[in-house]
Structure formats: structure tokens, C-alpha cells
Amino acid sequence: MKCYVTLLRYLAFLQRPRPLSLFFFFLRFFFFFLFLLNMSNRHTIVLIQTSHNRATRTFMDFESVTQAMDGICALYERKLKELNPASRNFSYDIADLYNFMDGLADMSALVYDHSIHAYVPHDRQWIKQRTLRHLKKFAH
Fold it and tell me: Where exactly are the transmembrane stretches of this chain (predicted)?
């Protein structure tokens, strides 16, 4: 019964005339929501070439930039497991991850931009910056 009364009060509140500031509040909220939607759901393709041999070209695709940065870290962690199969736990810092990225023959990312309906290319340096920003979130 209490929930029903609360719902009725909310519906009555919605039917009252509002000041213009409430309209702008909802407008800002709407645009902020669209911004978050575009930032979080930007399909990302990571292009990697591990050596100078063209046959080593490959790609990984992700639903967001954040997932792509996770995927790059996971790729490095798989490489660490290959090099040290007996170890179960690994620790590395950003310099180690950067050295791994620099050791690749080529690395770039294509990020879908909803506003232009196209993929925007990004270089290795951009990937490093985004990876650092992504890992800093986990450090806090």
C-alpha cells in the first residue's frame, strides 16, 4: 500500500506545471546519458602485427574502448604465461606493458564514432594513453 501511495504522489508531481529549470535539468540529464552511451558503447577493433611477417597480422574486436584495453592487457598476460608456464601469479607495471606494445611490429585501433557513422583510427601512442588511464581506474 505504501508503494502505491508513493507512486500516486509521484504521478501527481509529474502533472504539476514545472519551472523552466526542471526542463533544463532533464535536458542536461538526457545529453549526459547520450554522452555516456556513446563513450561506453563504441565498437573498437584492435589491429596487431606481432612481427614483420605479414602473415602475423590479426585483429580483435570489442564492444567498447574499455573492453579493448582489457583485451590488450589480457594479451600481454597470455604472453607472460607462455614465457613462464610454471608461474601462476604475474605482476607487471606500465613500463612492461609499454615494452610489450613497442615490441609489436604494428598496433593500432579503430573506434566507431556514432556522430559520423565511421571508424576513427588511433595509433599506438593513443592506445598506450588509454591503457594507462584504464589501469589507473583500477589503482584507485
Answer: 20-37
Rounded distance between C-alpha atoms, residue 88 and residue 37, angstroms? 37
Reading the block at residue 126, the C-alpha cell is 593513443
> CA-CA distance, 129 to 72, in Å (whole number)?
13
Length of the chain: 140
Domain encompassing residue 22 = 2-40
| Amino acid of residue 18 | R
Beta strand pairing call for 57-62 and 44-49: antiparallel
- The structure's pTM equals 0.69
**What residue ranges of the chain have pLDDT lower than 50?**
1-2
Residues 33 and 80 in one domain: no
DSSP assignments along 95-133, one per residue? HHHHHHHHHSSEEEEEEEETTTTEEEEE-HHHHHHHHHH
Same domain, 35 and 48: no
DSSP E strand boundaries for the chain: 44-49, 57-62, 106-113, 118-122
On whether the CB atoms of residues 79 and 103 are closer than 8 A, the answer is no
